[in-house]
Design brief:
The chain has eleven helices and seven strands. The chain has 303 residues and is an alpha/beta fold. Helix 4 links the parallel strand 4 and strand 5. The longest helix is centred in the middle third of the chain and has 29 residues. The chain is globular.
């Protein structure tokens, strides 16, 4: 007999990167379940606007996930206003599409700081709070790019592989603690992050609401691997035992690498790439330090 879903009614759930896209859609989905939602975003106006749109007592607060002290303060503020946090959804992330040889040091560092270090800090802070209250749920947003590398997304794929591996290790450490861990791995989603990207043969872009529904389902029926759509999980597992040459032929047939690589430096991604480049103010210090160590200037692609 299937277990009944865990009730989310009245539960306090925090979402980073919640001012738009998957984060905002998830806030709406959680509100429909009766959850109390704290939306964090580096764009404070977007966070506040999203919270007003969601309603139901949702709050919108500024958070730069690369500012670890600020991230902690954001969680403190969410608790102070809404109560003990039941779940943290580490959703904030950016994606640069570029040939790996042309990617700037700033782009590489920014993705690592937001997509990986932000998730690590959010996970650690969530676990500290949840241990004290006997349980909770950590949801880390990765990607199918965390299971396979895609041309034009070398650094992004690296960060998402790291999120998957980190989440798996954390889950192993938290067994029997009452703290659940889920790792969400969607295909391309129709959000600003995917601007200009085409679709592989036999596939289509998801809507943000599709991923939001999968996140809610994982909170109600806890599980670690959350592929969106579910069929991609079956395909991913089926490809693993195949020889690399066979996998390459399947990828070529589906044009999965062309989808991303062809959009590198395209005008259709200009607005998103510009916003992403300004999305983590606290990471600028790290970028400046690393840039000062460079012997040769980095080649860059047009945004």
């Amino acid at each position: 007999m299937a277990k009944p879903p865990r009730s989310l009614s009245g539960k306090v759930i925090v979402i980073t990167g919640g001012g738009r896209g998957i984060g905002k859609a998830t806030a709406h989905a959680l509100k429909r379940k009766g959850a109390r939602v704290a939306i964090g975003d580096v764009d404070a106006t977007a966070a506040e606007t999203a919270a007003a749109d969601v309603g139901g007592g949702a709050i919108g607060l500024h958070v730069d996930v690369t500012d670890h002290a600020g991230f902690t303060a954001f969680l403190d503020a969410a608790e102070a206003q809404l109560g003990p946090i039941y779940a943290v959804i580490n959703n904030a992330g950016i994606m640069a599409v570029t040939h790996f040889e042309d990617e700037s040091a700033a782009s590489i560092i920014r993705q690592i700081e937001i997509n990986l270090h932000g998730v690590i800090h959010g996970t650690r802070e969530a676990a500290k709070r949840m241990r004290g209250q006997g349980g909770g749920h950590i949801v880390n947003i990765a990607s199918v790019a965390g299971k396979a590398g895609f041309a034009g997304l070398a650094t992004y794929s690296a960060t998402k592989h790291a999120v998957v591996g980190y989440s798996e290790a954390v889950r192993a450490e938290l067994q029997d603690s009452g703290i659940e861990v889920s790792c969400v791995m969607p295909v391309i989603v129709n959000t600003e992050l995917a601007a200009g990207l085409g679709t592989a043969r036999g596939s289509k872009h998801l809507e943000a609401s599709d991923v939001a529904d999968a996140i809610v389902e994982a909170l109600e029926h806890p599980r670690f691997d959350v592929y969106v759509p579910k069929a991609i999980g079956v395909l991913s597992k089926a490809l693993v035992p195949l020889p690399r040459g066979v996998q390459d032929r399947i990828a070529k047939l589906m044009k999965s690498h062309e989808v991303t690589l062809e959009s590198a430096g395209s005008a259709s991604r200009a607005a998103y790439e510009a916003r992403a480049a300004a999305s983590a103010p606290a990471a600028d210090e790290v970028i400046e330090v690393e840039a000062s160590r460079s012997v040769e200037p980095e080649k860059t692609t047009a945004a």
